[in-house]
């Protein structure tokens, strides 16, 4: 897919990247409609939009000639709290939700468990380990060097027990486990990698945007966070079901707003 977006947080008037601003990276993952990646991409876009809006507000305040330097900062505090904080918080929620999804997938990626009730197979694998241990170390290394060529039962026999009990090298045992896990969970692992990349790109943009907005207000981080906290507390992520938002306060299902569609978690 073609890469999208900007490499740096700010862009110049001619559309080129402002290399003096934080590097955020170009979005380079396919984000299919209705997926977590699409929501991460929208969160990233929302963060960048918030930063762009605050830069526009700053330019407007400067051009008006009505504010001192301190007055511009005070006006930007109001703008940030009313126009940026909730948007950034929803973006953070989308990222948090994606991290939870990634962690759930990670928990599923593990070597296949052996059937503890199958005593015959367990005894066969024990014999395989005895046979393997009887070989010289150089022969053991040769046998276990290529996980793709190893018999699956022998691989299981060598990985279900610690390396000290089997005679396989720790490096080869780790390679066997990795090969087995990859074969068993290839699709899940690919999904996790995509999620991790999307989370990285979204979080980098959102956090850089929030930090730039905070700096433009002239507030210390603790002061900015303190003003933002009550606003963020009121922000409730929309619950989207079958394309409609479930409004718990009103007890109805309704069409989502554009902002809710952009940052639904």
Distance between the termini: 25 Å
Which structural category fits the helices and strands?
A: mainly alpha
Assembly classification:
single chain
The beta-strand count equals 3
Rounded average pLDDT: 88
Number of helices: 10
The H/E string reads HHHHHHHHHEEEH
In brief, what are we looking at here?
With 265 residues, the protein is mostly helical. It is 64% helix and 3% strand.
Give an overview in words.
The chain is 64% helix and 3% strand. The chain has helices at residues 36-64, 69-108, 119-133, 137-144, 152-159, 163-166, 170-184, 186-217, 221-234, 258-262; strands spanning 240-241, 244-247, 252-254. The mean pLDDT is 88. It is built from 10 helices and 3 strands. By secondary structure, the chain is mainly alpha-helical. Helix 1 runs antiparallel to helix 2 and helix 3 packs across helix 5 (152-159).
